[in-house]
């Protein structure tokens, strides 16, 4: 008989801690890094669509070290004089890469058939200080560029300092103001086109949604919102506005994470609809299909690929 | 008037050279420093361009468990 009437008192005690949780302002969580503010939105809205064939083979030699070979064949866009026409040149290239991933040190390097080397290094100097460097080196003179970043992670803030070649200096700072809201700002100075800029950003997140916004003195204002509808589905929308050139772009996208596949798609106010499907055919074998239809420019791109390992 | 011109230029030239000789050490030190950093950056760029991927491979082949050379070269 006692089982028919479960104790109501315990149910109430369970609910109370959720409602009465006081915000402990001295114990706020660490915010996301400044460059990853719009991470959730860009996962659906800025997918890497490609055109042509893509084949990636990653061979792991041990837990930390892997070599990868990738072949890409397809048309590559060349910047043209008029914005209406797109010039495409068919190219094929092979890229060899090596990755070394350690909890404290990460080295990623890629070299292409035309001699271009792209390098990324991430090292944890101490628990809180991290150095990152990335470089794209070519054989042509004055076409290489590299950047160094120094990140400091505090208890509820992150600060970053950046140095790039051709005298590029930047700094950014982001702070958790409440457990859900974080605010940040950045400053940069570019030596070659003598420009400096300031930007501000805000991010509000809960379990189910993330809203973020960013304004910069280069004229760009971006706002986006992501709603996690369920474990498998999330929807995102983005609005970007350039107040100097008066260009606006709004886009809506979705991200479906299913057991064997992941579909991401978006539609844009520029008349661009795109989608990317990644399907896991078996363990370690992934099949990719990418499509991007630009109705305004009448440019249709379709690609397929296979990723092994 | 034509004769005064070159005299004025000569005077300016002498003044200019006198002024630069006092600060020539500091300006040439700065120039030397800039030249040295440009030279070292160029060498560093070449070293990174050719040596970064071999560096990753050397670091990876030394990590535990040590992979064999055969595993590095075979396509399987």
Automatic annotation (TrEMBL), chain A:
This is Mitochondrial import receptor subunit TOM40-1-like. The keyword Hydrolase does not apply. Belongs to the Tom40 family. The keyword Acetylation applies. Central component of the receptor complex responsible for the recognition and translocation of cytosolically synthesized mitochondrial preproteins. Together with TOM22 functions as the transit peptide receptor at the surface of the mitochondrion outer membrane and facilitates the movement of preproteins into the translocation pore. Directly involved in the pore formation. GO terms for cellular component: mitochondrial outer membrane; pore complex. It is found in: Mitochondrion outer membrane. It is a multi-pass membrane protein. Keywords: Acetylation, Ion transport, Membrane, Mitochondrion, Mitochondrion outer membrane, Porin, Protein transport, Transmembrane, Transmembrane beta strand, Transport. GO terms for molecular function: porin activity. GO terms for biological process: monoatomic ion transport; protein transport.
TrEMBL record, chain B:
Residues 7-17 have a biased composition (Basic residues). The keyword Membrane applies. One of its GO terms (biological process) is protein transport. It is found in: Mitochondrion outer membrane. The keyword Mitochondrion applies. Its main location: mitochondrion. Residues 18-29 have a biased composition (Low complexity). InterPro entries: Tom7. It is a single-pass membrane protein. Residues 1-29 are annotated as: Disordered. Keywords: Membrane, Mitochondrion, Mitochondrion outer membrane, Protein transport, Transmembrane, Transmembrane helix, Transport. It comes from the Eukaryota. GO terms for cellular component: mitochondrial outer membrane. Belongs to the Tom7 family. This is Mitochondrial import receptor subunit TOM7-1.
């Amino acid at each position: 008989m006692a089982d028919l009437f479960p104790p109501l008192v315990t149910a109430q005690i369970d609910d109370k801690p959720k409602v009465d949780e006081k915000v402990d302002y001295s114990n706020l969580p660490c915010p996301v890094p400044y460059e990853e503010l719009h991470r959730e939105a860009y996962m659906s809205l800025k997918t890497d669509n490609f055109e042509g064939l893509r084949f990636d083979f990653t061979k792991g030699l041990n837990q930390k070290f892997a070599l990868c070979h990738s072949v890409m064949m397809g048309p590559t866009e060349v910047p043209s004089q008029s914005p209406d026409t797109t010039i495409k040149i068919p190219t094929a290239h092979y890229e060899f890469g090596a990755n070394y991933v350690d909890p404290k040190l990460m080295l990623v390097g890629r070299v292409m058939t035309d001699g271009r080397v792209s390098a990324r290094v991430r090292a944890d100097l101490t628990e809180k200080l991290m150095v990152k460097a990335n470089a794209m080196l070519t054989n042509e003179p004055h076409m290489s560029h590299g950047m160094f970043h120094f990140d400091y992670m505090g208890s509820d803030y992150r600060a970053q300092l950046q140095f790039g070649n051709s005298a590029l200096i930047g700094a950014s700072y982001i702070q958790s103001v409440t457990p859900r809201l974080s605010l940040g700002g950045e400053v940069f100075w570019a030596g070659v086109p003598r420009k400096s800029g300031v930007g501000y950003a805000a991010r509000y997140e809960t379990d189910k949604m993330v809203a973020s916004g960013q304004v910069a003195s280069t004229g760009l204002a971006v706002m986006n919102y992501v709603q996690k509808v369920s474990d498998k589905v999330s929807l995102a929308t983005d609005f970007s506005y350039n107040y100097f050139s008066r260009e606006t772009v709004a886009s809506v996208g979705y991200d479906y994470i299913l057991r064997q596949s992941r579909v991401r798609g978006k539609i844009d106010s520029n008349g661009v609809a795109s989608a990317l499907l990644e399907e896991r055919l078996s363990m370690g074998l992934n099949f990719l299909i990418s499509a991007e239809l630009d109705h305004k420019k009448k440019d249709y791109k379709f690609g397929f690929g296979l990723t092994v390992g | 008037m034509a004769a005064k011109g070159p005299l004025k230029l000569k005077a300016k030239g002498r003044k200019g050279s006198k002024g630069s000789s006092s600060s020539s050490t500091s300006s040439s030190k700065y120039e030397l420093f800039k030249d040295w950093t440009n030279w070292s950056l160029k060498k560093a760029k070449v070293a990174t361009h050719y040596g970064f991927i071999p560096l990753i491979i050397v670091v990876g082949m030394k990590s535990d468990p040590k992979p064999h050379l055969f595993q590095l070269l075979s396509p399987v």
